[in-house]
UniProtKB/TrEMBL annotation, chains A, B, C, D:
<dbReference type="InterPro" id="IPR025984">
    <property type="entry name" value="DCTPP"/>
</dbReference>
<dbReference type="Pfam" id="PF12643">
    <property type="entry name" value="MazG-like"/>
</dbReference>
<protein>
    <submittedName>
        <fullName>Nucleotide pyrophosphohydrolase</fullName>
    </submittedName>
</protein>
<dbReference type="InterPro" id="IPR052555">
    <property type="entry name" value="dCTP_Pyrophosphatase"/>
</dbReference>
Length: 119, 119, 119, 119
């Protein structure tokens, strides 16, 4: 059943949340992009002084902080997409396909160079 | 069928994408948090000089740019969650519940004040 | 006297601060870029639900928050530049000159379009 | 002479730049915070797939990119401060003093824990 898809469930939950609080008035795409970027940056704070190795082995407090920030990022992503009538699954699949063309396996295997450096 | 859920579909697509290119070595949680925040900030660029009203009425070029950046944000969110074994749907639902307690309807209706200002 | 220039004063203050705490070990350019972006995003939090007009008329609490976040941004900017031996004043003046060529007055006056749209 | 201080030189250069282009209308503090965070995030892009060690040994192309992004961050920092009549040097020095109290040498030496973990 379509409505049980994760992204649909979250979209509807966010709609209810905003409606109950009369917050639609604040949820312009511009404002939501700021909220999203703000939450994404809080993730940076979780990792900024950890080594890469440490970032894979979080303790319970660190893990909970990351989990909550990542949840906020997803919620604002879903909310912003909803406000602009963007189908997130289709958009994400189309972007993977585009990335696949920009980073062809035979050229980038094992390398992290940005694709503009290959052209 | 569980594996048709959007978030599962995207998780598996990102796993394949990285595996084909031997990119797992670059995908530490620390690095992924940087990629995620970088993509979220590119959304800001789409909106920075628009008014709130304009941000709801994007032209075709603007819309495509926003759609692609939002897709990138979702893809890195999914990828980072996968690397840390975070169940995004559960995490997001738990966060909505927590937000509901921090922003009780009767206190915040129609107001955008941060919840710390209510305490 | 050169050493009284603001950027030099702050560079030296940050050097002392890190040295006293033995924090140089954490201040790789990669980590500092995360700290800088994290602080810049905290500024977004100050403004995300304000209208543009409101953002020009902050109350005392809001003003203090913005002042502190902006200070953090400047401090990490100075610190990152120092670690990479970048002369911030020269770099900023060169960038203004470059921006001037990308956004010639006669083409962009009164318009906020990104310069790539003019080409 | 006060007007030769780096931060004053850059403030005045940014004022002229905006005035010539009639861009003051776009430079609300809200919009400038988005521009600043956007530029700070472009720095992340320079470093996201580099190791910490690599981030200290940039090649010429990488160095130029970092230098330009860092310049943009400084320019928008100066511009936002100007719009809100914030004295950046005073604000930064006050913040260093505050940070010094939050991170007393005897408690944090050699450790990167966030100060809230000490309390």
């Amino acid at each position: 059943m379509k409505s049980q898809d994760s992204l649909v469930v979250l979209k509807e939950a966010m709609q209810s949340f905003a409606k109950e609080r009369d917050w639609d008035q604040f949820h312009s795409p511009k404002n939501l992009s700021m909220a999203l970027a703000g939450e994404a940056a809080e993730l940076l704070d979780c990792f900024r002084w950890l080594t890469e190795a440490e970032s894979s082995k979080l303790d319970a407090n660190q893990f909970q902080a990351v989990e909550e920030e990542l949840a906020d990022v997803l919620l604002f992503t879903v909310r912003l997409a909803d406000k602009l009538n963007i189908d997130l699954l289709s958009a994400a699949q189309a972007k993977i396909a585009k990335n696949g063309m920009n980073y062809p396996v035979e050229k980038v295997k094992g390398s992290s160079k940005k694709y503009t450096e290959y052209k």
